[in-house]
Design brief:
Blueprint lengths: L1 E4 L16 E8 L7 E8 L2 H13 L3 E8 L2 E7 L6 E5 L2 H13 L2 E9 L2 E8 L4 E6 L2 H13 L3 E8 L2 E7 L6 E5 L2 H13 L2 E9 L2 E8 L4 E6 L2 H13 L3 E8 L2 E7 L2
Antiparallel strand pairs: 1-9, 2-3, 3-5, 4-5, 6-8, 7-8, 9-11, 10-11, 12-14, 13-14, 15-17, 16-17
């Protein structure tokens, strides 16, 4: 299935429920003569609590940029992206795709998709031109859909996997654009290094159906990743990356491992 929109529409936002959970920010701190890092994350085991954390982050001036469901946790990454910022979620795929269309009608572009705990979750940012998605339960078909989107002038910006389905998000982003995938984590790490050598940056990671999948965009400065099978170790890795002047731009989870993508913005 392939769907897209290039409508010009107005902005909106969204408020949600209650709260418990964990927050951590790194707010506008100067690091060794580099630019300030403005980045945060929140997580909760409960979906209702997680949605309240999103609202609280909005009140603090952050925008939701990436979501992952892994190891019983909902995990959100927050930055200083442009408004409007919104999310939609449903346990029914057809309903979820209708929510995407509804967001297009209110001036949003789909920027990130996640599946977890029986639920599809989409993050939306301001409309910046054409936006589309493609989905298939067959990986080879999904790869062809990516090629077809490239032929239409789109770039792949995010990939999700859930309920036996691959899901790609496409936009009018900068070229070059590429992807790599492997069932071996060590081989996947080598693929990332190879893409760096070719002048790409890693921008998104997903795990599904026994394979790691990475999305790559043009080189925009320092690019890094950190990974751990221990959640506390992973959150320390995030803090360490902040100390190095990086911001977390994407989070993934698969095969018992947390994975963070970092960019020197």
């Amino acid at each position: 299935m392939i769907v897209d929109s290039d409508r010009d529409v107005a902005e909106t936002n969204e408020n949600n429920n209650r709260n418990t959970g964990e927050f951590l920010d790194y707010d506008a701190v100067q690091i060794n003569d580099t630019q300030p890092v403005v980045n945060a994350w929140s997580w909760s085991n409960r979906f209702d609590d997680f949605t309240q954390q999103i609202s609280d982050r909005w009140d603090q001036g952050y925008e939701l940029t990436s979501v992952e469901r892994g190891d019983g946790r909902w995990f959100g990454v927050f930055g200083e992206d442009e408004r409007p910022n919104a999310w939609s979620s449903s346990g029914n795929f057809d309903n979820f795709t209708q929510q995407i269309s509804n967001r297009w009608d209110t001036g949003h572009n789909l920027i990130d998709v996640e599946y977890g705990d029986g639920r599809w979750f989409g993050i939306f940012g301001p409309s910046k031109g054409r936006n589309g998605w493609s989905s298939s339960g067959n990986f080879d078909t999904f790869k062809q859909q990516i090629s077809d989107r490239w032929d239409q002038g789109y770039e792949l910006v995010d990939v999700g996997y859930g309920d036996g389905r691959w899901f790609g998000v496409f936009a009018d982003d900068e070229r070059p654009n590429a992807w790599s995938s492997s069932g071996s984590f060590e081989q996947f790490e080598q693929q990332i290094s190879d893409r760096w050598d070719e002048g790409f940056d890693l921008i998104d990671v997903e795990y599904g159906d026994g394979r790691w999948f990475g999305v790559f965009g043009p080189d925009n400065g320092r690019n890094a990743y950190s990974s751990s099978g221990n959640f506390d170790t992973f959150t320390q890795q995030i803090s360490d990356r902040w100390d190095e002047g990086f911001e977390m731009v994407d989070v993934g989870y698969g095969d018992g491992r947390w994975f963070g993508v970092f960019q020197d913005d």
